[in-house]
């Protein structure tokens, strides 16, 4: 078995309408989450980022304004909000809101105040959608009609707390995927359609997705097909090489072939390391000595970058 496989699979058909994200709750005596905005100067914030954000980059591309200095809402602004909110639990909501406000301070007025107002409204939306989703209960096995109803409620909630331009900028891609998933569920559950008719209807439904999402799905399918081809042609390297070149083109096929060789080499070294690691862990060494021995063992099998990967894999073993 691979330590960390290359390929990815096709997304599931039935999904919750609202994408999983951090849940915002009322805290610190605030009447509402938006009350936490405009209090950054009074909130102590650690110099270091939360551990889960260490070594990452703050999203950029969000500080856009028009010629009058008004904020232009973009998906990147929501990404900025979610980047910090993803660390909720490591820091309080107050502290994370203060971090977001600090990032927004690079804007000039009126964009700065508009961005803060958007942040407050977004926090209110997050609380409201969390409460709405709790009222839904179980989400698996929903029919297309019920998914459509829930999607409409969530879309209305977004446009209750956010103006139309901001809601569209923040959620257009999510909502396009939701519509596609609902249509996909309708098509695949329609017993009056033949397999060929379903395939054609799915192609038409997918054509309505924004181009980046459509291309991402195509890439996902291609690599899922590649994983299947690798399994089926495992004993025929020449046939697999021909398949790669036909599907991906010569340059990409060469890169995949190199990755394949690198993955196999990694798998061999990982297995050798894992065997020695397991013997070491069962040797009865005290914790400090065992940790030092593990570090020496990793250093003997892997380079510096690979040691980070090996340590991460060990942590989820």
Automatic annotation (TrEMBL):
It comes from the Bacteria. Keywords: Cell inner membrane, Cell membrane, Chaperone, Lipid degradation, Lipid metabolism, Membrane, Transmembrane, Transmembrane helix. The keyword NADP does not apply. The keyword Cell inner membrane applies. One of its GO terms (molecular function) is unfolded protein binding. GO terms for cellular component: plasma membrane. GO terms for biological process: lipid catabolic process; protein folding. It is a single-pass membrane protein. It is found in: Cell inner membrane. InterPro entries: Lipase_chaperone. Its main location: membrane. Residues 1-31 are annotated as: Disordered. May be involved in the folding of the extracellular lipase during its passage through the periplasm. Belongs to the lipase chaperone family. This is Lipase chaperone. It comes from Marinobacter sp. MMG032.
